[in-house]
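User: Hi! I have a protein structure encoded as tokens and I'd like to know what sequence might fold into it. I'm fairly new to this, so please keep things simple.
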């Protein structure tokens, strides 16, 4: 391994991380962006046919226009846009490189990855949350038929599919699977579908449930998953249904363990990093957070459209400290 020195190391190459990198480039700071996967890795996990809720201008970074054929851009358009932005600014990206540890060594931070060692004055963590699913913690969750990510419906034609959850991801998956020939059952521990489902999707799903095209069980939990069936439980009784595939779309969370081992304190209730100022600096002087990770488990409060703004505030503060 070689040792490399920078003013700033940004961990995470999503929109928030890229936005911070662009601001660093504009300020003539030395930096690199370390990402354990590909560029905007979380968006790679989104369903293939997904459209963003936000309009293109609300997804823009680096003051480069995001053009789309429709009012709401697709996942593919998003991937192409962010890749194009990174190329335009010639961002120093270290892709498919996992951070192993982040420690303070004297006046600098030392970041050890799967490929190198980096030393830096400041760190920005913008790792998001989408890579870390909320596990059910039940027998059978480890089976190959179970996935916490949904991509596209075609291979599940004529399959008995269980979708666990009642928010946007679950709603989109249930509807697409139904329309491509799967026998879909939706299970949710709550009493109804989430009101936060996109307004053009919610009535569609409600009507499919009402007409019986999609079977839905509310106030119901999954107790166990087997190769050919799943066991369900309500307040009143237990029962089983035949099953081929399970999509457990129960949400995601930041990598709390990495934050804690880096010395960052988390709120006891939300698990959000505790900040010491308005520049998104954690309790560890010199370590900042950006993007959805700022909100901890309340990740429905920070999206690309507001998380992309964090980098400008952070870099502005870092520049002031460097110039002192």
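Assistant: Happy to help. Inverse folding works backwards from shape to sequence: for each of the 324 positions I chose a residue that suits the local structure. Here it is:
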């Amino acid at each position: 391994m070689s040792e490399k020195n920078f003013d700033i190391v940004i961990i995470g190459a999503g929109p928030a991380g890229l936005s911070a990198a662009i601001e660093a480039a504009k300020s003539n700071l030395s930096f690199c962006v370390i990402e354990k996967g590909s560029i905007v890795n979380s968006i790679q996990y989104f369903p293939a046919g997904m459209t963003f809720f936000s309009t293109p201008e609300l997804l823009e970074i680096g003051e480069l226009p995001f053009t789309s054929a429709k009012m709401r851009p697709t996942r593919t358009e998003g991937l192409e846009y962010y890749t194009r932005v990174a190329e335009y600014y010639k961002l120093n990206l270290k892709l498919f490189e996992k951070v192993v540890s982040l420690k303070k060594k004297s006046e600098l931070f030392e970041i050890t990855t799967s490929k190198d060692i980096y030393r830096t004055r400041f760190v920005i963590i913008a790792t998001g949350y989408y890579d870390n699913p909320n596990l059910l913690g039940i027998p059978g969750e480890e089976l190959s038929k179970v996935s916490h990510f949904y991509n596209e419906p075609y291979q599940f034609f004529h399959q008995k599919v269980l979708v666990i959850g009642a928010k946007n991801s679950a709603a989109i998956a249930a509807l697409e699977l139904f329309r491509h020939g799967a026998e879909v059952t939706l299970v949710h521990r709550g009493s109804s579908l989430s009101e936060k489902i996109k307004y053009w999707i919610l009535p569609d799903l409600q009507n499919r449930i009402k007409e019986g095209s999609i079977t839905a069980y509310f106030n119901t939990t999954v107790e166990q998953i087997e190769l050919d069936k799943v066991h369900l439980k309500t307040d009143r009784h237990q029962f089983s249904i035949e099953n081929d595939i399970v999509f457990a779309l129960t949400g995601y969370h930041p990598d709390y363990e990495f934050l804690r081992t880096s010395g960052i304190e988390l709120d006891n209730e939300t698990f959000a990093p505790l900040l010491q100022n308005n520049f998104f600096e954690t309790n560890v002087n010199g370590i900042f957070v950006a993007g959805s990770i700022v909100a901890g488990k309340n990740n429905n409060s920070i999206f690309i459209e507001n998380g992309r703004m964090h980098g400008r505030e952070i870099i502005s503060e870092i520049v002031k400290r460097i110039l002192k």
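A useful reference point when you look it over: The radius of gyration is 21 Å. Feel free to ask if any position seems puzzling.
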